[in-house]
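re: the backbone from monday

yeah here it is again, tokenized this time
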């Protein structure tokens, strides 16, 4: 049953209506008017162009509130079950999405609860497809509470998505996985395709989780879940048509089926182990982090004592320019000992605190995850700024340029360093819901004015003034 759609009689005519909880529409004002003005699209078989579809009226109805629009007889994607029924529906939807893309009006962030097919499509014939306005549908699901929203909204867009066609490809990939396996593509139940916040995929590939599924279709779903930009709507139509021609599934020998079941069992056991570990850390995380921080503090104190005993790195022979380069190498490499050897504590305190904090975070995660989570910014940019995994910890310096300003006194030098520092920043999700916040790469451009003085142990940074821009 669709939790948000119903049909009502208005002035003697049947209408398709979107349900909201009681009082949900009160005080919406301009926001509601803007949402009602957002078009959906009706694609009819054989029509030259798609038709705009909009909600026409809003009203309180007993315990709830309704937005009503033109009638449409059909059911949504999340009401369809199983490979044959679901895949036939997806073929009609893929064709409709391709038609919208060709017209330049394909919406972003399509929602499964708001994608409806006429009864003709449900009977195996290519029928009409209605794409309701995604933003207002997502708001209706959110208003129903977390259970209704989690049960009906697919992840609206992959973090790697570069446009509406990639969104649509990602949407189709999740639907294929759900119909073929009975489970969500992101390790969730069948009725919960995933959150919109870029969760890490923990489920088996479609080719393994649904071994009878037409292989080319399974491979396309796995590819689009990893990189939706690489799979176009034409690819989906071709794969779905080819799968339809052979009945969507293939026959497996008992030996092959047993081997695939064994591999799937091993994969699921490993995934369950990771989930138990994550759940343990979630429940005991604060205590573990506290212990790790305490150990880190003790470690830093011990390191200070050892450094005092054996001395810091010897940079006494470096020129001012060489020392400045060493300083930024230490800042990027989280090398606290080298950083401190380059400058006076008062001058470099802000950078020293950042390095100490990042060292605690990365070492704590290394101890728990068994791997270094740090993703150097230079490597990330060299990879073409690939989509970040949830476990990636982006950090680093790019574009460093250091120039000496004037001659200065014999024992004093002024240098200017310009560069970008990359990190992760939290941003709102596609619908603006704070609960959908996710981490995105952030570039901060900096210009540092350095003053270096020469003493008995060579040049050292005695002043650092920084200007930043987002």
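seq for it, each position gets an aa:
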């Amino acid at each position: 049953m669709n939790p948000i759609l119903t049909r009502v009689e208005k002035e003697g005519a049947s209408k398709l209506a979107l349900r909201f909880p009681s009082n949900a529409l009160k005080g919406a004002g301009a926001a509601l008017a803007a949402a009602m003005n957002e078009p959906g699209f009706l694609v009819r078989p054989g029509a030259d162009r798609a038709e705009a579809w909009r909600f026409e009226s809003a009203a309180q109805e007993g315990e709830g509130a309704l937005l009503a629009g033109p009638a449409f007889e059909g059911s949504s994607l999340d009401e369809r079950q199983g490979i044959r029924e679901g895949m036939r529906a997806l073929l009609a939807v893929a064709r409709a999405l391709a038609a919208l893309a060709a017209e330049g009006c394909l919406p972003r962030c399509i929602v499964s609860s708001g994608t409806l097919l006429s009864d003709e499509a449900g009977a195996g014939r290519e029928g009409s497809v209605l794409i309701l306005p995604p933003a207002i549908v997502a708001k209706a699901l959110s208003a129903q509470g977390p259970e209704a929203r989690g049960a009906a909204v697919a992840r609206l867009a992959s973090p790697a998505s570069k446009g509406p066609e990639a969104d649509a490809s990602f949407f189709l990939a999740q639907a294929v996985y759900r119909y073929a396996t009975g489970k969500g593509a992101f390790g969730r139940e069948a009725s919960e395709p995933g959150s919109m916040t870029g969760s890490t995929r923990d489920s088996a590939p479609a080719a393994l989780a649904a071994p009878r599924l037409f292989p080319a279709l399974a491979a396309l779903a796995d590819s689009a879940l990893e990189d939706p930009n690489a799979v176009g709507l034409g690819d989906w139509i071709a794969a779905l048509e080819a799968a339809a021609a052979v009945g969507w599934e293939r026959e497996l020998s008992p030996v092959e089926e047993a081997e695939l079941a064994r591999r799937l069992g091993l994969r699921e056991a490993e995934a369950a182990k990771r989930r138990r570990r994550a759940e343990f850390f979630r429940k005991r995380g604060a205590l573990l982090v506290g212990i790790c921080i305490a150990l880190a503090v003790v470690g830093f104190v011990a390191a200070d004592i050892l450094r005092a005993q054996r001395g810091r790195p010897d940079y006494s022979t470096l020129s001012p320019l060489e020392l400045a380069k060493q300083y930024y190498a230490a800042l990027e490499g989280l090398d606290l000992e080298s950083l401190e050897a380059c400058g006076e504590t008062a001058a470099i305190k802000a950078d020293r605190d950042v390095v100490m904090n990042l060292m605690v975070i990365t070492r704590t995660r290394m101890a728990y995850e068994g791997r270094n989570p740090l993703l150097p910014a230079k490597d990330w940019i060299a990879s073409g700024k690939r989509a970040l995994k949830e476990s990636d910890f982006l950090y680093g310096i790019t574009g460093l340029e250091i120039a000496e300003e004037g001659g200065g006194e014999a024992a004093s030098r002024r240098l200017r360093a310009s560069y970008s520092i990359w990190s992760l920043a939290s941003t709102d999700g596609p619908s603006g819901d704070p609960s959908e916040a996710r981490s995105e790469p952030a570039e901060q451009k900096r210009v540092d004015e350095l003053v270096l003085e020469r003493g008995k142990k060579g040049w050292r940074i005695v002043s650092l003034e920084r200007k930043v821009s987002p």
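The chain has two domains: 5-251, 312-469. Confidence is low (pLDDT under 50) at residues 121-125, 150-154, 188-200.
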